[in-house]
């Protein structure tokens, strides 16, 4: 009778051990999927932020090109600063030795 009880206890322990392993594997899988989902959300937010930043960079580059345009600078020089191109009589050449 003791041998039968021992076998039964061993079987129960094996079943409990297998069940525990399955539960642990299931918990690990759920944790891994949750972590992957969380990382996907973080990555998505970072990509959106990067796209906004890249859009801002493109706008700033365009604004820079517009502000440094030779035509714009000439217009401001003429209209706001009352500047003009010198006549040929106003040009003086300097010779360096």
Dominant shape: rod-shaped
The beta-strand count equals: 0
The radius of gyration computed from the alpha-carbon positions, rounded to a whole number of angstroms, is 39 Å
SSE pattern: HH
Number of domains: 1
Mean pLDDT: 94
Mind summarizing the main beta sheet?
Answer: none
Portion in strands:
under 5%
Walk me through what this model shows.
This protein is an all-alpha fold and 97 residues long. It is 78% helix and 0% strand. It contains 2 helices and no strands. The longest helix is centred in the middle third of the chain and has 66 residues. It starts with a helix and ends in an 18-residue tail after the last helix.
List keywords for this structure.
single chain; 97 residues; mainly alpha; 78% helix; 0% strand; rod-shaped
Short description:
This protein is mainly alpha-helical and about 100 residues long. About 80% of the residues lie in helices and about 0% in strands.
Task: Describe the protein's topology.
Blueprint: H1 2-67, H2 70-79
């Amino acid at each position: 009778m003791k041998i039968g009880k021992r076998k039964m206890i061993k079987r129960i322990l094996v079943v409990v051990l297998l069940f525990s392993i399955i539960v642990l594997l299931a918990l690990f899988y759920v944790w891994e999927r949750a972590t992957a989902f969380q990382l996907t959300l973080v990555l998505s937010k970072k990509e959106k932020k990067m796209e906004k930043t890249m859009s801002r960079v493109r706008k700033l580059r365009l604004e820079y090109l517009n502000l440094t345009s030779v035509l714009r600078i000439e217009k401001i020089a003429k209209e706001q600063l009352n500047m003009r191109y010198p006549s040929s009589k106003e040009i003086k050449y300097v010779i360096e030795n």
